[in-house]
Design brief:
Rossmann fold; Helicase, Ruva Protein, domain 3; 4 domains; single chain; 45% helix; alpha/beta
């Protein structure tokens, strides 16, 4: 069990020794410093759970120490040591954010009680943050609208994979809700009480991403004026989402792979490994199998991440969810209960292709709430792109339409069977031929009860070269 570390800052050497002895007797790990500057340097390098500092010292005084500690980590309690006659300074320190003050000469029992209360407060604050985060993550599963069969399958997969420690690769176009899925996995996991930390690998400059993920030490590069904890350390006991991991440069991919295999990270500018206990989730809108072929993504990292792939279907492939999603967003955006949507406007929502997926639908409804008049959202309240979508290029079907009508279900089943037969039941090639992902093909094979001749079911896995892995929906 990790011992609680207390940093004692006082220019009186004899008092430092007394405090160090008394605190060690109580089972604490103690770090002492003779000045505010030295104490802050120790804090940046070693860290601490609590700071006990004198208020009057040569150079940097206790109030200045308090200010700097709060800049480094506002969650670290600071207790002020004050001699008779400096109570006003102690009160001022409490107004500035100190937990409490102890008068010199101190009473050992008073010291023990004050420390215990400060540490309990810190633990309670952290627990409140974690519980709020866990509750939000659980609610994220409720926010996943799943009227369509494909999304019900995704929700079932989330429920099954969440309690495990398995790495999950979440695939799908931009705006399909990949982070929402990741949060739901975290919220239903045994790590739900720990932090959920999301990192958008595409939004952070390449030269800063390594520091963002793994942290850095003071002086590691220009601008590194103090030690910094990275996202992996910050997520200790919880989950890290590496969003848009397909945009990460190959040199950094090597370090992510090492982190996954060894469960350690190294801060930039330091070669000491730091052990981390985190679950890694990854997401991308890129086709990583194609990125492997072009040299943009490491094959070994792909297989390490792709233990359980979840492909979120685009909105145009789950139109059954549009009505429920519309109601969900209108409610979350604070729309009046009496507000209705004109049938013509709703038909426009249903037939639109949604290149921006669920995020685009939410934005369109937010716009409609701003511009609508009265109790109804009309077609004119929707964005121009939805009111008058560009006509898709006409294509001729390879079949003729009979006068008596046909069954779409039977046509789909027949097309899938023909594509599989044409490609000797190679699922990846058949999926590419049909213009869908391999996971979508497997779902539709199950849906239609299609089995490979010889008794092998729809999930019979053919063996292909490494780059023929599960297709990701590309943006």
């Amino acid at each position: 069990m990790k011992r609680i570390k207390i940093l004692v800052i006082d220019d009186d050497e004899s008092l430092r020794r007394v405090l160090e002895y008394n605190l060690a007797q109580e089972g604490y790990s103690v770090l002492t410093a003779s000045s505010g500057e030295q104490g802050l340097d120790f804090l940046r390098k070693e860290g601490a759970d609590l700071v006990l500092t004198d208020v009057r010292m040569p150079g940097m005084n206790g109030l200045q120490v308090l200010e700097e500690v709060r800049k480094l980590d506002a969650g670290i309690p600071v207790i002020i040591l004050t001699a008779f006659g400096t109570i006003e300074a102690a009160v001022e320190a409490m107004k500035a954010g100190a937990f409490h003050y102890i008068s010199k000469p101190f009473n050992r029992d008073e010291l023990k009680l004050t420390l215990r209360k400060a540490l309990e407060m810190k633990a309670l604050e952290r627990e409140n943050v974690v519980l709020r985060q866990a509750l939000k993550s659980r609610n994220d599963l409720d926010s996943i609208v799943a009227e369509s069969a494909s999304m019900r399958h995704i929700v079932e997969m989330i429920r099954r994979v969440a309690p495990t420690e398995t790495t999950v690769l979440i695939l799908g176009e931009s705006g399909t809700g990949k982070e929402l899925v990741a949060r739901a996995i975290h919220g239903l996991s045994t790590r739900a009480r720990g932090p959920f930390v999301a990192v958008n690998c595409a939004a952070i400059p390449e030269n800063l991403l390594e520091s963002e993920l793994f942290g850095h030490v003071k002086g590691a590069f220009t601008g590194a004026i103090r030690d910094r904890v990275g996202k992996f350390e910050a997520a200790e006991g919880g989950s890290v989402l590496l969003d848009e991991i397909g945009e990460m440069r190959p040199e950094l991919q090597v370090k992510i792979l090492r982190c996954l295999e060894e469960r350690t990270v190294e801060r930039v500018g330091d070669n000491r490994p730091i052990r981390v206990d985190v679950r890694v989730l990854a997401a991308t809108n890129r086709d990583l199998s194609k990125a492997i072929q072009s040299g943009g993504f490491r094959e070994d990292l792909y297989y390490r991440l792709n233990v359980v792939p979840l492909t979120i279907p685009p909105l145009r492939e789950r139109r059954e969810d549009i009505r429920a999603l519309t109601q969900h967003f209108l409610t979350s955006l604070g729309a009046p209960l009496r507000l209705a949507i004109d049938p013509e406007a709703f038909r426009a929502l249903e037939v639109y292709e949604w290149p921006g997926n669920v995020r685009e639908l939410e934005n369109a409804l937010e716009r409609a709430l701003i511009f609508h008049r009265g109790d109804t959202i009309t077609l004119l309240d929707l964005p121009e792109t939805i009111r008058a979508p560009r006509t898709r290029e006409a294509t001729s079907l390879p079949v003729s339409l009979p006068e008596t009508g046909l069954s779409l279900e039977k046509v789909e089943k027949d097309l899938i069977l023909r594509a599989l037969q044409k490609h000797d039941w190679n699922q990846s090639r058949a999926a590419r031929y049909l213009g869908i992902t391999r996971h979508t093909l497997l779902y539709r094979m199950d849906k239609h009860g299609i089995e490979r001749p010889g008794g092998r079911g729809g999930h019979g896995e053919e063996r292909e070269a490494p780059m023929e892995g599960p297709d990701a929906t590309s943006s």
